[in-house]
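Board notes (copied after class):
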Amino acid sequence: MKRHNSQTLHDLTLDRRTWLAATAGAAAAVAWPWSFSAAAAELKGRINQSVCLWCYNGYLKKAGLTLDDFAAACAKLGLKSIELTGPGEWPVLKKHGLICAMVPSHGIGKGLNRVENHEECLARVRKSIDDAADAGFPNVITFSGNREGLDDEEGLKNCVIGLKQIAPYAEQKKITICLEFLNSINHKDYMADTTKWCVQMVQQVGSPRVKVLYDIYHAGMMKEDVLADIKNHHDCWGHYHTGGLPGRNEIDETQTLDYAALMRAIVDSGYEAYVGQEFIPKRPEALASLEQAVRICDV
């Protein structure tokens, strides 16, 4: 069933010469492959929307667009953040009034579920906390790591030990550490792949600055009841990611999740942080898909 009315891609796609933008340091014509139909002023804004840069790297390269171009587009759409970016990219974000709502740290496979990884992983988390605090950004990501034969209970215990070590520093710096919920199908053998495990982790650490990045696509892949998770465990979630199910593409009527309903539940839960668009655009005009997603989530 179609859940969202929007312009067609044909309506959204205009001649490249119709959009001009200023480049940094000098006024220059930038050819855009797409024209905006949305503006920040038109949004309700009850959801603070963000976007993950990595999903658009291929599109930007193909279209000949820079991070500066993308940031300008995101600001025009009413997005407030481009996440999973590093300190070298942040001046460009700030130029357009954007933040990085989720700062990266260590990798996915080697995480906190093994004590021997704690020194390396926590050092990277600590550095990211410093960077985020200096920039005025709210969150740092971390990961459980892969099982590789390790029992889930043992891995949970080790994650709790590691997070309890860094939690006081996060509290001091007023930064929230978010351990990401990923599915163990795409990310084969990843440990933090169930709602139960993630909720236990948050509860056992017991810090207001240690939460879960609840990725809606990944939870759906693991056949969790996403709507119930939002309603019942919203106090454990420090950040959300989107993604169409199945396929991780556009979040519209081409997939199975009702994102408008999920966003209403997030708003009703009292959540005031960020929701990051992390779908991989399948259509040629990725910015049109991003605009559509912004509209769907603007409940």
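Comment from the instructor: Residues 21 and 27 are 8 Å apart (CA to CA). The beta strands are 48-52, 81-83, 139-142, 176-180, 210-215, 237-241, 274-277.
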